[in-house]
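User: Here's a protein and a ligand (adenosine-5'-triphosphate). What would the complex look like?
Assistant: Let me lay out the input and then the predicted complex.
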Amino acid sequence: MLDEVVLNAQPSTDKEETMPCFQTPGPTLTFHNLRYSIKERLGMFSMQWVEKDILKDVSGIMNPGMNAIMGPTGSGKTSLLDVIAGRKDPRGLKSGQVLVDNTIVTSDLRLCSAYVVQNDILMGTLTVRENLAFSANLRLSRKEYSSADKQMRVDSVIQELGLNDCADTKIGTMFLRGVSGGEKKRCSIGMELITAPSLLFLDEPTTGLDANTANSIMELLQKLSKKGKTVIFSIHQPRYSIFSQFDHLTLINKGEITYAGAANRAISYFEDLGYKCEPFNNPADFFLDVTNGTMVENDNPLAVIYRKSPNFLNVKDRLTHISDALDPQVTKGDRVGYATPFYYQLMLVSGRTIRNILRNPQTSYAQLFLNIFFGILVGLIYYQIPHTLPEALQNRTGAFFFLVINMVFGNLSAVELFISERVLFIHENSSGFYRTSVYFLSKVFADLLPNRILPVFIFSAIPYFMMGLKPDVEVFFLYCVTLSMVSLSAVSLAFLVSASVGSFAMANILIALPYVVMMVFGGFLVNLNSMLSWMSWLKWASIFRYGYNVKSLPVTTPGKTRMTGDILWGFWQNQVALTGIMCVCLILSYVQLRRINRWK
Ligand SMILES: Nc1ncnc2c1ncn2[C@@H]1O[C@H](COP(=O)(O)OP(=O)(O)OP(=O)(O)O)[C@@H](O)[C@H]1O
């Protein structure tokens, strides 16, 4: 289904037909008296919090064209961009409003606006065309766009962004060299242009790129702006050729605006204040030097001067007119829904997950190899278990404990399941690609189940026959079911940990703890009846215990081939308990995914 847009089609040559997405005129974005603050702890162990303003009473107007937000490191340019793009936690916004074409904007605008993040977030195992097709299929409504329309949109974006040469090259991963940095950035911009946005936000689009690539990215943005789009971006210290492409410049320092107006009038503004830009000095460097040089402790004299300047008074005047005409009942951004239905999203996201596993199979191979290796090892150690006591009992107990340990600890790799894609999920989910439930179910159906069940069956079969357990299909099946359930419960717990934390180090610590506690309460290392009663309840949560209980099933009893009702009843009780653990972990994982902080 990922191929809903036919991926290898030739780019259309009809210019008029392929460019409709770049014709919509951009809106005017205004922001009034924005004050944004964050809470900081007074000291590392302090219970007291202080509020720190990172945007202080900031107002401005951004028209269609190239709107740059510039300032020194930590000045608040990304924060300003995020607040006006609806990406920053709305709880921090203490006052002010953002309007798009004189209509109040809610933070749900992020679901339907275009925002290119600083670090390109793309699926590395997919090609440029496949990534763009993924965006088109999910973000363009099926009612309004046929497959051919979507394909045409992908082709036109590839053409417009000059991505023809690398359209069928993979983006690249840790193991795979892919497209260049500039091509990756173009592809990230293309992911957003697919929806034909008239308003485009970009966070530091040139950071990490060499001078020529940075220049070509900015030329591309300028081309878009010339077609009427409102392009708003933060940028740190651009070279002159880039600076000269700006239409509007907002200079910010310590959360306050020190200049806002036409970019080509900024030098004369500062020269009027007595700062001289040397003939060969880069204006961007000059502005940062002036800004940094005038800061006196917490005073920001340039911001004070700006607030008295005709530029600011003019902005204020226009903003007052807009405010007066405002209808507070009308908002943009609420009732924003997804462009595609649930089942369709599930097919596309699952398809991408499977494709990603197939193209990046190292972990799956390692998992399979480990299972086969341990299967043979267990089979050799406990080869043809004798039927006489005490060897029969000791070896069978040891063998089953070993099997269950492998089932549980063999799934440690599952903690990376979600962490490795966390940033991608947050970006796509908050940009309105798909629902959280879709992502969660795609992981369960396309990753968790197939990746964990197939190796378990291979692993289980090898030692079963080597150990000389009961040659009975029914018993073998029940034995495999138990080990699969042990594996799935252990994976679900790993998935819960993976969904709850953002770093591998934390996840490894958090998963090791319950696994070890469960092992202790598994019934092999300690007699559970002789334990302190207030501790012994932990046995009910032990995956090891329920898995280990299977040991009574496949015993070769000469002359007795059927299982008694008691044994079967005990067997199903264990399966119900394992299913319960699995379901609880999966439900909690889903809750954790929903709780992830999507704000910047
Ligand atoms: N969520 C947050 N939590 C804590 N501090 C924050 C948060 N967001 C922003 N800040 C602080 O606000 C200030 C402005 O940050 P911001 O990222 O907007 O600056 P910037 O100008 O974009 O810097 P840079 O060029 O280094 O990216 C910084 O001191 C930063 O530490």
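Summary: Residues 38, 54, 71, 73-79, 234, 236 surround adenosine-5'-triphosphate (CB under 6 Å).
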